[in-house]
Design a protein that fits this description.
By secondary structure, the protein is α+β, with helices and mostly antiparallel strands. It has helices spanning about 40-50, 75-150, 160-169; strands spanning about 5, 10-15, 20-25, 25-35, 55-60, 65-70. The protein has a domain at about 5-105: 2-Layer Sandwich (Phosphorylase Kinase, domain 1). It is built from three helices and six strands.
């Protein structure tokens, strides 16, 4: 545990990989420096959202790197280091999930198209059969009308009630 002063009046209390435990204005702060190409902002913010009940977070961007500060009052350096390590593990999980999602997205779209295919195919067949039935009905009606006109038969339409009365007589 080396004690040094950094440029923003914070004392370095402990360092582990990319995690630094600092003392700023009487409060202990964990600072993580993350590469912006490895961890995009979306991944960092989703990890922060997952851990927001554990501590306060401040995200800053400088020199192509994200700086995440984890702030928790009345906590020991050990507790803050554990929160930082948990956050870093969650960050890696979110980054891996995002990477897997990007890799499997084309397959997911292909599977959804395959699932939709039978439904679309059946729907198109049904519409085709329906339109063929309508065409055949129209053709049948036209053929019937032509046949009646050719024979010179004209059917008189009698309402149902009149037909009943005529039948009773």
């Amino acid at each position: 545990m080396a004690k040094q002063k950094t440029n923003d009046e914070a004392k370095l209390l402990e360092k582990f990989a990319n995690i630094e435990i600092l003392e700023k204005q009487g409060a202990k702060v964990a600072r993580l420096t993350l590469d912006s190409t490895t961890f995009p902002l979306k991944v960092i913010l989703s990890a922060v959202y997952s851990d927001i009940e554990k501590a306060g977070f401040m995200v800053d961007f400088s020199d192509g790197k994200f700086v995440v500060e984890i702030i928790k009052t009345n906590s020991s350096s050990k507790e803050l280091m554990e929160i930082s390590k948990d956050f870093q593990n969650r960050l890696i999980n979110h980054a891996f999930y995002e990477l897997q999602t990007m890799r499997t997205d084309p397959l997911k779209k292909l599977l959804l198209q395959a699932v939709d295919f039978p439904y679309d195919y059946a729907e198109r067949i049904h519409e085709k059969e329906k339109s063929e039935e309508q065409v055949s009905e129209v053709n049948a009606e036209a053929d019937e009308a032509e046949l009646e006109n050719a024979l010179g038969v004209e059917e008189l339409e009698i309402p149902w009630s009149e037909k009943k009365e005529d039948d009773k007589k």
